[in-house]
Design a protein that fits this description.
By secondary structure, the chain is an alpha/beta fold. The strands form five sheets. The chain has an eight-stranded parallel sheet, with helices on both faces. The chain has a five-stranded antiparallel sheet with strand order 11-12-13-18-15. A hairpin with a 2-residue loop joins β16 and β17. α1 crosses α8, α5 packs across α6 and α7 runs parallel beside α9. Bound molecules: ligand FHN. Ligand FHN binds next to loops.
Length: 662
């Protein structure tokens, strides 16, 4: 038994490692991730022939409708009022930046022309129109991104067999092409010739979706949980995820892959999805997964209680609730994907249109406090939530109160004002933060009052502390040391680390520690510069080539696997950590801030300005690359690294490629 378990664990590990090593997000993909994060708001559409029954998209399963009978609905599907231009402009009017529409839901009906099955809106309905083509062309025309939802489940195909947890009453027989298929009777899913056929069917459809509709922003998978008898690696194999993801990235490298499997992201996924929960919540038991610190996040939510059109569901959330929900989601650094279930006649429900317009009106005025923002530095308070953009903090106040306390410790406040009209607000500073006095005539929109506080960039506080502590510990440190300490992943003082001997010694002790699975920084002797990065981050090991959450094994593996020799590793180490060539505005702001802090707290550092400006020039010239990377817990995020471009390309890029650690 133990042996079987061991084999299973090794298989799982291998699958994961293989998948990780095989996937390196392309530059286009990284750019799509960035755009996606900036968007913050999208509209979800669940539409199919189920809308005719007015009982939600699960009606086939819920009412145990035999697929042969269900299919006949298609013969009556004629959404005479469908007008893609109207849909897209109403959605655009809400301020949403992308649309995610169901191309095929669990019932198996495709609302696009597919050669993989006649069961689609062109070949099986009197409507005879490719709905996705019309939506795609409008999206491209009106300049809004398009994402496709794609169901892994199919309740109407005999080759979706063995059946999973759902759709047992939809009439699938277990017979395919004249042969009886095996049942799912073991813990490890066995594929069969029929299921292989189903996998091919999905590949054909995905190829069509990524070939016939122009640029696709994302493929949004759903339904993996139907067969969740196996976990992680084996589950990925069962669903052929590695190949599916690779196919998508091959056809459109910029297309993001998301999967609503309610688990930690699998290798090859580009966004993390939460269903009906803002990251951090778990109201329905769907969100036990850890929140990714690497991937962009998205929460999907319904406007009433249904995804697909349900004629009796009038339990619409109020406009105010939805606006606040969008703000709360942004305050957690996530996008909101808000759902609409169109009617069978092709119109969007009036209740949805009213809500789209209300959100749009609010976004017109306050969009700047949502689009392109990051999670607030101030965590959720009894008065509301906050978002931030550089050194601008946007406080969204939900509570009816005359003053609020904002725990922005040691922050140098430059300005505190009403966001809408710039009217200055009084505030008082104390040691734990700032007390802001709200004026009674402040505008209230969507039940929210918005205050803007411009402060010295939030990370400045942590940075200042770090620089001070570093200088206390290493009074002889040079500017380069400070610079590296702040921006180069805490590699330690250059005056120790720049010597090859020091690095090799350090590296040896690191490897020893890793093998012993201990941190024990003292072990590393005089070469150990700074051990706090791991303690702060809660990470387990140092990774001398740059660490990041969940990838701490990389630095050990990189030598173990012979990807870099100890010597090459030492070279890379002397020169800096892993990096991705991207000098962001945010990084530039932080760099300017660091220079300012050093000038203030260590004016004795001679030649600082000259050096700092030289480094800036080299970065601008592209001789160095900078990467916005790790987060130091809540206190210090984001974090940046810098490295010479030639060294990055020679030493680090192969590692990134191998380990998928962008
Ligand atoms: O079963 C689906 C459901 O119909 C709907 O599509 C939602 C959207 O997140 N996802 C599944 C449930 O997890």
């Amino acid at each position: 038994m133990r042996f079987v378990f061991l084999i299973l664990s090794v298989l799982i590990a291998c699958t994961q490692l293989w998948a990780q090593s095989a996937y390196t997000p392309s530059p286009q993909n990284m750019e799509s991730r960035r755009e996606f994060s900036q968007a913050r708001f999208g509209i979800f559409i669940h539409w199919g022939i189920y809308s005719m029954l007015g009982d939600g998209e699960w009606v086939m399963h819920n009412k145990n409708i035999n697929y042969k009978e269900y299919e006949k609905l298609a013969g009556g599907f004629y959404p005479s009022k469908f007008d893609a231009a109207q849909w897209v402009s109403a959605i655009k009017g809400s301020g949403a930046k992308y649309i995610c529409i169901t191309s095929r839901h669990h019932d198996g009906f495709s609302i696009f022309k597919t050669g993989a099955s006649p069961y689609n809106s062109v070949d099986a309905t009197p409507f005879k129109r490719d709905i996705l083509a019309e939506i795609a062309s409008e999206c491209h025309k009106q300049g809004i991104r398009l994402h496709f939802y794609y169901s892994h489940i199919d309740w109407g195909r005999e080759d979706y067999y063995p059946v999973g947890r759902t759709g047992h009453g939809t009439g699938r027989t277990g017979w395919f092409e004249g042969k009886k298929l095996p049942q799912l009777d073991s813990a490890v899913f066995q594929t069969n010739w029929a299921y292989e056929n189903y996998l091919k069917f999905m590949d054909t459809q995905l190829t069509e979706l990524l070939t016939n509709y122009g640029p696709v922003g994302a493929i949004w998978f759903d339904g993996l949980w139907d067969r969740d008898k196996q976990k992680n690696g084996l589950l990925a194999q069962t669903w052929n995820l590695d190949n599916q993801y690779a196919l998508i990235h091959k056809l459109q490298p910029g297309c993001l892959v998301g999967n609503n499997h309610h688990m930690d992201p699998f290798p090859g996924e580009d966004i993390q999805i939460f269903e009906r929960d803002i990251p951090g919540q778990n109201l329905y038991g769907y969100s036990e997964q850890a929140i990714s610190t690497v991937l962009p996040l998205e929460t999907c939510q319904t406007m009433n209680r249904s995804w697909g059109y349900r004629v009796t569901d009038t339990t619409y959330k109020t406009e105010e609730f939805l606006i606040k929900y969008l703000v709360q989601t942004a305050a957690k650094g996530a996008n909101l994907l808000l759902n609409i279930g169109p009617r069978p006649d092709g119109t969007l429900p009036d209740e949805s249109l009213v809500r789209l317009a209300a959100i749009g009106k609010w976004m017109e005025k306050y969009g700047e406090t949502i689009y392109g923002t990051s999670a607030g530095v101030v965590p959720e308070q009894s008065w509301g939530v906050s978002t931030r953009k550089g050194n601008r903090n946007f406080l969204h106040i939900f509570k009816d109160t005359s003053e609020i306390f904002v725990p922005l410790q040691n922050m140098e406040v430059k300005e505190c004002k009403v966001y809408a009209d710039g009217h200055p607000l009084k505030y008082r500073k104390d040691k734990n933060g700032i007390r802001v006095f709200l004026s009674p005539d402040m505008p209230v929109d969507g039940g929210i009052r918005v205050v803007e506080i411009t402060s010295e960039a939030a990370d400045g506080v942590a940075m200042e502390k770090a620089i001070k502590a570093f200088l206390e510990r290493y009074p002889q440190a040079t500017l380069q040391d400070v610079y590296k300490n702040s921006f180069q992943d805490w590699f330690g003082p250059a005056h120790i680390m720049a010597s090859r001997e020091g690095v090799v010694k350090y590296l040896a002790s690191e490897l020893k520690q890793m093998e012993q699975e201990q941190i024990g920084v003292d072990d590393a002797g005089s070469a150990v510069a700074e051990g706090s990065c791991n303690k702060l981050s809660g990470g387990k090991y140092y990774t001398p080539c740059g660490w990041r959450n969940n990838y701490y094994q990389v630095s050990l593996d990189v030598v173990r696997d012979g990807l870099l020799t100890v010597d090459e590793f030492a070279d890379a180490f002397i020169c800096g950590g892993g990096a991705v060539p991207e000098v962001t505005d945010e990084w530039m702001q932080e760099w300017e801030l660091m220079k300012k802090i050093v000038r203030r707290i260590a004016p004795e550092m001679e030649g600082f300005s000259a050096d700092a400006d030289k480094i800036t020039a080299l970065i601008k010239e592209g001789k160095y690359v900078v990467h916005h990377s790790n987060r130091y817990g809540e206190a210090y995020k984001p974090h940046y690294r810098i490295i010479r471009r030639d060294i990055f390309e020679a030493c680090i890029l192969p590692r990134i490629k191998k380990y998928d650690i962008l």
